């Protein structure tokens, strides 16, 4: 179990605040050559003030954030399992055009409109489809 801290984007912060206890999420690797999903985690503590915003030694320090009205939030996540294989973002993106044109679970997924955010909501149908990709051979 660890905290998911350092979300600096306000939209990402707002989305973190809507996560619910027990909800599952993908743990994505984005600061690498080929971004993708490597594990599943679950929310074990709902949103609370991100302590890094008050720590002057932390890169996420924000001198304008006040303890009585914090700007940033974080959640605690717990490891559930590794995905059966690394699911590349490019593999997920490859399904989007067909789903958008002909209907499918990824037709409205926010991932392709808001991909720079560290958190994005998925419907259960979207989550299940992406998780099903771990069974496919990478293309």
From TrEMBL:
Annotated keywords: Nucleus
Segments forming domain EVE: 1-131
Composition bias type Basic and acidic residues, residue spans: 64-73
Alphabetical list of Gene3D superfamilies matching this protein: ph1033 like domains
Keyword Metal-binding: no
Stretches the record annotates as Disordered: 51-73
Keyword DNA-binding set for record: no
Location of this chain's protein in the cell: Nucleus
Top-level lineage group: Eukaryota
Family matches, as SUPFAM superfamilies: PUA domain-like
GO cellular component: nucleus
Function: Specifically binds 5-hydroxymethylcytosine (5hmC), suggesting that it acts as a specific reader of 5hmC.
Matching PANTHER family: THYMOCYTE NUCLEAR PROTEIN 1
Name of the molecule in the record: Thymocyte nuclear protein 1
Native species: Daphoenositta chrysoptera (varied sittella)
Chain's gene name: Thyn1_1
């Amino acid at each position: 179990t660890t905290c998911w801290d350092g979300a600096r984007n306000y939209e990402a912060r707002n989305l973190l605040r809507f996560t619910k206890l027990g909800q599952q999420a993908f743990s994505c690797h984005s600061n690498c050559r080929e971004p993708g999903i490597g594990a599943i985690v679950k929310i074990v503590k709902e949103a609370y003030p991100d302590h890094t915003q008050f720590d002057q030694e932390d890169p996420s320090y924000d001198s304008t954030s006040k303890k009585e009205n914090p700007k940033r939030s974080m959640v605690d996540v717990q490891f559930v399992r590794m995905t059966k294989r690394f699911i590349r973002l490019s593999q997920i993106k490859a399904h989007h055009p067909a789903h958008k044109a002909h209907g499918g679970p990824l037709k409205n997924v926010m991932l392709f409109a808001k991909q720079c955010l560290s958190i994005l909501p998925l419907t259960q149908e979207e989550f299940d489809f992406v998780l099903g990709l771990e069974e496919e051979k990478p293309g």
